[in-house]
Design goal:
Length: about 50
């Protein structure tokens, strides 16, 4: 899964509020046996395995 990271966009970006927050990331990754992430500037890639 790839998502924008909250707070990393320019303050003037109209889509600034669409990013994932740390609390949402915790919920997303809970329950997976393996979680790998990679940050790509304003995006974060999640590899989740059962």
């Amino acid at each position: 899964m790839v998502t924008e990271i909250s707070g990393r966009c320019a303050a003037t970006d109209p889509l600034r509020g669409l990013g994932i927050t740390p609390a949402q990331a915790e919920i997303l990754t809970a329950g997976w046996s393996t979680v790998q992430t990679a940050d790509l500037d304003v995006l974060r890639c999640y590899a989740l395995r059962p």
